[in-house]
C-alpha cells in the first residue's frame, strides 16, 4: 500500500482512532492532574479536556472531509469509505461529548476533594 | 483416516453439481460415535456443544439463585449458615458471568459467524476444539469444588485482602482464581478465531459495509476480550502467587497495593459487561429485520455505536470504585464517560424502534423477546446513569439497588435477546422449529416474573438492604418485599422451565423447519437447516448487505476450491477480494490431549508452584503432537 493511500485511509478513520486516543489520554490525565490542580490556581484538567475536545472534533471533521477526496474506483471502495466517514465522524462526536463533560467536571471541582 | 474422495487437486468446478455435496461431505466429515465427538473440529458441533454446556451452567446457577431467594424470603431463616451462603452467592455470580454469559455469546458466534460470513469453518478449528475442552474443565473444577465444600466464598470479584492469604484460608479463593484462568484462556482463544475469521474468511464481495451487524458485534466483542481479559488473568495469577509462594502484589504492608486488585479486576470487569451486551445487541439488530420485514434502520449508526461502545467500555472501570477513596476529580472523568456511553446505546435503541415503526412487525416469540429487551434494558440503562453519579452511588453502593441494576442490564440486556436468538436460530441448529405457543407463554412468564422479582430490589436497596447478607432481623423493614420477590421468582423460574421444556421437546418432536423459515436476509440461511459439514457446496459471492433478499432467486457463487482437501477462500480485509486458497485442519485428538495436559498443570499449580515446571512438559508434548505433520493433503498448504 502506498504512503498516500495509507494516509488517506488513516484520515478517513481519524474520527474513530484519533478521537478515541485523545479521550484515552485524557482519562489518564484525569488520574494524574488532580494532584497538580489541587495545588495550583490553574485547572489543568479542564484545559487538557477542552483542548482534547477540540482535537477530537477536528478529527471528526478530518474524517468527513478526507472521505470526499478519496478515490472511489469501485463500489466496494465507496462502501468502505462511506462506512469510515460515518463511523469516524459520529464516534468523534461521542468522544468530543465525553471530553466536554470531563472539562465541565474539572471546572466544578478543585482537585482537592477526596 | 480415509484417503481423499477425489483425485488430488480436483476443483469443485470439475465435479457435477449433483455429486459435489457427497464429495465435500466425505472431505469435511466428522466420524460418528464417541471418537468423532472427541476429535471433531467442526465449528457447528463445537458451537452446539458450547451452547448446550453454557445453558446447563445457566440452569444450575439458577438453582443457586432460587436457593438464595428461599433463604431470604423470611427473616432469620436457617436454610443455610453464613459460610454456605457466601459460597452460594459467589458461585452464582462467578458461574453466571464466567461460565454462562461470556461463553454462551462466544458459543453462538462460534456456530453462526462462519455461516454468516460464508465460509466453511472457523479459523484455527483445532484451537476452537481446545477452547471448549478448557472451558468445560474450568466449569467442572468450580462445581466439583463447590460439591466438596471448597467452593469460593469471596464474591465474584474476589477483593483482596478477603481473598488474600491473610483472610482466605484453604483453597477456596485459589479455585476461583484458577477457574478464571481456564475460562479466560478459552475466551481468548475463541476471540482470536473470530477476529481472523471475520477479517480474512469473509465471502468474496462482503465489504466492510456488507457485514451483518451481529458479525460486527462479535468483531468488537472479540477485541474487547483480547484487550480486557489479560488484566484479569494477570490479577488472578498474581493472587495465586501471593497465596502460594508469598509474593506481595496486593499486600500494602510489604509494598503491595490492595487497590491494584480493584483496578485490574474492573479494567476487565467493566468491559466484561459489554462483552456480554454487544453480542446481544448484534443479535437484536440481525433478528429484527425479518420480523420488522425491512432492513434495520441506520446500519452505519448501529456499527458506529458498537465500535464506540467497545472503546468507551475501557474508560468506565473506576465507577465500580467510587467509594475507594480516589480523588473526586478523577472519579468525575469516569462519570462523564459512563454517561457518554449512554449515547451509542441510545442510538441503537432508537434505530431498533425506527425499524419497528417503519416496518410491518410480525409478533413472533423472537420479536417479543426483543421488545422485552428494549424495555428492560432502558430501565437498567437509566439506573446505570443514576449509579454513574458519585453522590448517588455512594449512597446505594453495595445495596440491593445495585443488584437490581445489574440484573436489569445483564438479564434484560443479554439474556432476553439470547432467548429470542435461541428461538430464532433453533431451526438452523436442529432443523426443527420451536413451539410458538410455548415460546409466547415462556416469554410472558419470564418478563412478568423478572420485573416482579428485580424491580422491588431497587426499593429494598433504597431502604438500605445490603448485598450478600445471608439473613436479616425481623424488625428491619425488608420482610414484605423479600417475600414478594421470592414468590415472584417462582414465576420467573416457571418461565425458564417452560423455555427448557420447549427447547428439548422441539429438538425431538418440533415441526420440521425449511431452510429459511423466517425469510431472513443473511447468509447462514442460504445453507440447509441444519447445515452440512462443509456449510456451503459453493462459496457465496455477496453484492449487498442483504444477500438473500437482494439475490432472492440465485445467489452468485465462487468456484475453484479443491474438494480433495479442506479448503477455504481467504479474502482481503476491507474489500473482501479473493486472495488465496487456504487449507483448514482436519479432525484431531490433540486439542483434547493439550486441554487435559493444561488442566492437570493448572489444577496442580493451585497446590504446588513446581506444577508449572513439570506440568509444562506434557503440555509441550501435546503441542508438538498437535502441530506435527499428519500426512494429510492439508499439510501441503
Automatic annotation (TrEMBL), chain A:
Membrane-spanning residues: 6-25, 46-67, 87-109
Keyword flag Membrane: yes
Superkingdom of origin organism: Bacteria
Keyword terms: Membrane, Transmembrane, Transmembrane helix
Record protein name field: Uncharacterized protein
Native source organism of the sequence: Bradyrhizobium stylosanthis
TrEMBL record, chain B:
Gene3D superfamilies in the record: Cytochrome c oxidase-like, subunit I domain
Localization of this protein: Cell membrane
Entry keyword set: Cell membrane, Copper, Electron transport, Heme, Iron, Membrane, Metal-binding, Respiratory chain, Translocase, Transmembrane, Transmembrane helix, Transport
Pathway: Energy metabolism; oxidative phosphorylation
Cited SUPFAM superfamilies: Cytochrome c oxidase subunit I-like
Catalytic activity field: 4 Fe(II)-[cytochrome c] + O2 + 8 H(+)(in) = 4 Fe(III)-[cytochrome c] + 2 H2O + 4 H(+)(out)
Transmembrane segments: 50-72, 92-117, 129-148, 175-199, 211-240, 260-284, 296-318, 333-355, 367-388, 400-426, 438-460, 480-501, 613-629
Entry-linked InterPro entries: Cyt_c_oxase-like_su1_dom (IPR023616), Cyt_c_oxase-like_su1_sf (IPR036927), Cyt_C_Oxase_1 (IPR000883), Cyt_c_Oxase_su1_BS (IPR023615), Cyt_c_oxidase_su1_bac (IPR014241)
EC number assigned by the record: 7.1.1.9
Protein's membrane topology: Multi-pass membrane protein
A GO MF label: heme binding
GO cellular component terms, A-Z: plasma membrane
Keyword Metal-binding: yes
GO BP of this protein: electron transport coupled proton transport; oxidative phosphorylation; respiratory electron transport chain
Residue ranges of domain Cytochrome oxidase subunit I profile in the record: 29-543
Main subcellular location of this protein, as a coarse class: membrane
Annotated function: Cytochrome c oxidase is the component of the respiratory chain that catalyzes the reduction of oxygen to water. Subunits 1-3 form the functional core of the enzyme complex. CO I is the catalytic subunit of the enzyme. Electrons originating in cytochrome c are transferred via the copper A center of subunit 2 and heme A of subunit 1 to the bimetallic center formed by heme A3 and copper B.
Similarity annotation: Belongs to the heme-copper respiratory oxidase family.
PANTHER family to which the protein is assigned, alphabetical: CYTOCHROME BO(3) UBIQUINOL OXIDASE SUBUNIT 1, CYTOCHROME C OXIDASE SUBUNIT 1
Protein name: Cytochrome c oxidase subunit 1
Organism of derivation: Bradyrhizobium stylosanthis
Taxonomic lineage: Bacteria, Pseudomonadati, Pseudomonadota, Alphaproteobacteria, Hyphomicrobiales
Amino acid at each position: 500500500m502506498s504512503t498516500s493511500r495509507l494516509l488517506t485511509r488513516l484520515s478517513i478513520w481519524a474520527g474513530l482512532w484519533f478521537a478515541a486516543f485523545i479521550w484515552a489520554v485524557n482519562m489518564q490525565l484525569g488520574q494524574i492532574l488532580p494532584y497538580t490542580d489541587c495545588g495550583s490556581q490553574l485547572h489543568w484538567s479542564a484545559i487538557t479536556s477542552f483542548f482534547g475536545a477540540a482535537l477530537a472534533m477536528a478529527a471528526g471533521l478530518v474524517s468527513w472531509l478526507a472521505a470526499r477526496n478519496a478515490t472511489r474506483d469501485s463500489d466496494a471502495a465507496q462502501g468502505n469509505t462511506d462506512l469510515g466517514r460515518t463511523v469516524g465522524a459520529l464516534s468523534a462526536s461521542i468522544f468530543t461529548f465525553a471530553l466536554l463533560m470531563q472539562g465541565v467536571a474539572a471546572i466544578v471541582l478543585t482537585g482537592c476533594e477526596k | 483416516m480415509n484417503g481423499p474422495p477425489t483425485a488430488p487437486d480436483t476443483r469443485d468446478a470439475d465435479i457435477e453439481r449433483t455429486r459435489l455435496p457427497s464429495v465435500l461431505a466425505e472431505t469435511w466429515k466428522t466420524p460418528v460415535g464417541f471418537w468423532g465427538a472427541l476429535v471433531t473440529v467442526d465449528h457447528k458441533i463445537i458451537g452446539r456443544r458450547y451452547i448446550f454446556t453454557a445453558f446447563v451452567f445457566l440452569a444450575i446457577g439458577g438453582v443457586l439463585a432460587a436457593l438464595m431467594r428461599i433463604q431470604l424470603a423470611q427473616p432469620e431463616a436457617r436454610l443455610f449458615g453464613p459460610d454456605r451462603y457466601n459460597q452460594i452467592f459467589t458461585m452464582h455470580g462467578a458461574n453466571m458471568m464466567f461460565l454462562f454469559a461470556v461463553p454462551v455469546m462466544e458459543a453462538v458466534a462460534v456456530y453462526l459467524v462462519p455461516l454468516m460470513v460464508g465460509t466453511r469453518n472457523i479459523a484455527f478449528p483445532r484451537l476452537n476444539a481446545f477452547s471448549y475442552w478448557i472451558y468445560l474443565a474450568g466449569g467442572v473444577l468450580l462445581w466439583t469444588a463447590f460439591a466438596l465444600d471448597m467452593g469460593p466464598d469471596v464474591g465474584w470479584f474476589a477483593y483482596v485482602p478477603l481473598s488474600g492469604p491473610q483472610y482466605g484460608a484453604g483453597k477456596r479463593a485459589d479455585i476461583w482464581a484458577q477457574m478464571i484462568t481456564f475460562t479466560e484462556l478459552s475466551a481468548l482463544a475463541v476471540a482470536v478465531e473470530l477476529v481472523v475469521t471475520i477479517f480474512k474468511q469473509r465471502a468474496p464481495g462482503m465489504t466492510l459495509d456488507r457485514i451483518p451487524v451481529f458479525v460486527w458485534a462479535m468483531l468488537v466483542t472479540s477485541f474487547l476480550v483480547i484487550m480486557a481479559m489479560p488484566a484479569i488473568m494477570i490479577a488472578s495469577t498474581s493472587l495465586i502467587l501471593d497465596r502460594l509462594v508469598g509474593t506481595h502484589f496486593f499486600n500494602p504492608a510489604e509494598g503491595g497495593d490492595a487497590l491494584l486488585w480493584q483496578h485490574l479486576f474492573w479494567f476487565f470487569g467493566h468491559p466484561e459487561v459489554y462483552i456480554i451486551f454487544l453480542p446481544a445487541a448484534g443479535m437484536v439488530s440481525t433478528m429484527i429485520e425479518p420480523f420488522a420485514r425491512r432492513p434495520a434502520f441506520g446500519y452505519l449508526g448501529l456499527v458506529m455505536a458498537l465500535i464506540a461502545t467497545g472503546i468507551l467500555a475501557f474508560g468506565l472501570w473506576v465507577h465500580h470504585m467510587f467509594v475507594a477513596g480516589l480523588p473526586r476529580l478523577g472519579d468525575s472523568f469516569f462519570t462523564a464517560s459512563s454517561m457518554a456511553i449512554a449515547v451509542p446505546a441510545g442510538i441503537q435503541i432508537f434505530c431498533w424502534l425506527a425499524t419497528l415503526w417503519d416496518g410491518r412487525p410480525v409478533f413472533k416469540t423472537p420479536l417479543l423477546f426483543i421488545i422485552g429487551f428494549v424495555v428492560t434494558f432502558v430501565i437498567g440503562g437509566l439506573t446505570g446513569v443514576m449509579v454513574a453519579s458519585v453522590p448517588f452511588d455512594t449512597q446505594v453502593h453495595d445495596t440491593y439497588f445495585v443488584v437490581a441494576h445489574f440484573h436489569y442490564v445483564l438479564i434484560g440486556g443479554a439474556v432476553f435477546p439470547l432467548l429470542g436468538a435461541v428461538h430464532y436460530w433453533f431451526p438452523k441448529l436442529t432443523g426443527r422449529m420451536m413451539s410458538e405457543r410455548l415460546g409466547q407463554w415462556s416469554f410472558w412468564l419470564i418478563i412478568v416474573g423478572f420485573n416482579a422479582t428485580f424491580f422491588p430490589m431497587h426499593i429494598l436497596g433504597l431502604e438500605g438492604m445490603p448485598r450478600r447478607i445471608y439473613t436479616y432481623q425481623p424488625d428491619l423493614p425488608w420482610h414484605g418485599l423479600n417475600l414478594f420477590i421470592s414468590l415472584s421468582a417462582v414465576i420467573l423460574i416457571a418461565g425458564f422451565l417452560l423455555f427448557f421444556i420447549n427447547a428439548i421437546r422441539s429438538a425431538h418432536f418440533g415441526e420440521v423447519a425449511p431452510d429459511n423459515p423466517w425469510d431472513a436476509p443473511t447468509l447462514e440461511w442460504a445453507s440447509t437447516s441444519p447445515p452440512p459439514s462443509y456449510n456451503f457446496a459453493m462459496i457465496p459471492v455477496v453484492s449487498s448487505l442483504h444477500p438473500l433478499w437482494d439475490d432472492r432467486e440465485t445467489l452468485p457463487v465462487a468456484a475453484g476450491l479443491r474438494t480433495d482437501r479442506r479448503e477455504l477462500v481467504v479474502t482481503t480485509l476491507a474489500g473482501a477480494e479473493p486472495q488465496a486458497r487456504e487449507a483448514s485442519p482436519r479432525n484431531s485428538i490433540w486439542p483434547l490431549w493439550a486441554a487435559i495436559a493444561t488442566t492437570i498443570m493448572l489444577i496442580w499449580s493451585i497446590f504446588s508452584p513446581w506444577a508449572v515446571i513439570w506440568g509444562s512438559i506434557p503440555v509441550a508434548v501435546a503441542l508438538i503432537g498437535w502441530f506435527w505433520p499428519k500426512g494429510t493433503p492439508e499439510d501441503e498448504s
